[in-house]
Amino acid sequence: MPKSAISSIQCPGLQSIRTSLPGCGILLYIVLFCPYNTVFAQQEVQIKEITATLSPNFTAEDLAELTEQLSFYLKHPLDLNSASPEQLKELFFLSALQISNFFTHIRLTGKLKDVLELQAVTGFDVTTITRLLPFVTVKEELPLDFSKAGKGVSELTLRYGQLLEKQKGYTQLPGSRYLGSPGKILLQYRYHLNDRAALSMVAKKDAGESFFSGNSKSGFDFISGSLALYKSGRFKKIIAGDYSLQFGQGLSLWSGSSFGKGDDVAGIAKKDTGLKPYTSANEYSFFRGTGVTYKVIESIDLTTFISLRNLDASLTKSPEGDYQLSAISTSGLHRTAAENEHKGKLGLLLYGAAVTYNKHSLDLGFTAYHSSYQQEFITGNQRYKKYNFSGRELTNLGFHYNYTFRNIYFFGEVAHSIPGGTAVLTGAMASLSPRVSAVVLVRNYEKEHVSFYNKAAGEGSTAANEKGVYAGFHINVTKKWTLSAYGDLFWFPWAKYRIDEASAGYELNARISFKPDKMFKALLSYQTKQSQQNEGSGKPVNPIADLRKDNCRLEGNFTFNRKITLQSRFELTRYQKGTVSAEYGYMFYQDVAYHPMSSRVSANLRLAFFHTPSYNSRIYAYEDDVLHGTGSGVYSGEGIRSYFNLSYNLSRQLRVWGRYAVYVYPGMEKTGSGLEEIAGSRKSEIKLQLRYQF
């Protein structure tokens, strides 16, 4: 990395540094004297900058899991000399090519003596290194002595939230109503013993669910936990309880969170982590049982797993008296009598294995697993369901590869289901120059392919009935200007939900940012997406109409005296279906954040104004929340949105968060619909969270 690039990282007194290694000396000054030494006081700011652009693509639970990973590495930096590829992949802002280049550098030059050597790794520009520094370290690797390992670290978190206005579902209705209280409760416990053991527990009650009553007489509606042991002889991982599996590019076997199309074009190439404990509050995407990763020989690992759990499902009775499966529920909500009736109705036994080979710049993997469902799937009479899975037994096979040749990272996967068809994905990512990187991906998913555990790149969510081509690039135009863009063309050979015939579309996204110094950043982005959908005329086969959505966003960030940060955003949206007149919406917000490095108190505030004619032209925007409670706010209709978050360190071990958030819809007599309906024009929520670390 050239000295000029590193010099762009500004710190007080930087010009006074003199050393025989100019670039390294400047980076050393950054590590020792810049705000990274006070990173724990500003961890919410650090994490927000990384995760803010991800919120529209993740559920609140999955986004919380990602922020928890970053928070852990802030307090317990990852040793680069002993880190595994799976651990570096958890720092999700690193691309697959950067991770591959890092391990190639280690293999060729030996272990790092200092984090400053990161500037010698191909593809690690000043932005990447600046973002990475708080989460990593370099230290001498010593043999582990459990007698000197200490007691580990524990973290206990309790969160309570509630809407202040009474929703219709909590009234004494003659029909469907909520059976529990409006409070939302989350209890989490984490324990880590170095990198050798981890214990996790999550207990959750959603709003409207019973608590120590009804179907939850034992307490929380959802309880999840796991015990993980690492590096025990040839056993690299042993997990009992709830776990996730992530292999290849997500075509055959992937559970938990995953990136898709977004501002980070390199994120389209997935970074699989194999077997890992499940720590999210999401109630669907996990396995329950045991999983083991065993080192067979050098470079070859074998992962075996078995899972037995009950899924929420809607069952129908056949004329013969047998129960058949009509739909699987993934929401995890059990508030009404009908939702409780579906709870745990579908038993699933799943077992399989994955063999992975990793040597130098080549990764190969083969996965095979079998799913046995307690009830039989039925396809239904709808046209788009013709090729859906039917029966009780399903086998999935997958082969994936990653290979780095010089500055090009090749990746891909082939998946096949029995019964069913085949799905193929292949792509390449390249550093075309120190300033330019690009990625291209081609996919062909047959309409007969079936995989209930996939997160493959694509427009749809099933990795079936889709063909497409994706291409994107990222350019560091100058030290101050960056540009990224992608385009995606997609085709659906058969009918889909709300589309009764073959269809096609495209998506284009461009983003340019300007950062002249550490105190100011401006961003301009534009996204357009055209697809097709039924006109909705009610005919047996509906004609399809073109559907187009456009978003344009202008954003500015200004840091004042390293204590107060201002963020402003103005966003326009356009929605049009067929020949109907287009509808336009807008949203403007102003954020103010107070994060003094030496204070026990931090706070942030938002005031937003929005207007969209309907839900079709809604706007999403990242919202600050209590720690790990981050998510994306939905701005729809006409109104005002505001929230205030306050955090206070009661002691070195105990911290408390509070939040008040409100939507105001002037002139509205009610908000929401169905059981969510609230009388009046206001919808407000409070949250309180405690975290104890010991």
From TrEMBL:
<dbReference type="InterPro" id="IPR010994">
    <property type="entry name" value="RuvA_2-like"/>
</dbReference>
<protein>
    <recommendedName>
        <fullName>Helix-hairpin-helix protein</fullName>
    </recommendedName>
</protein>
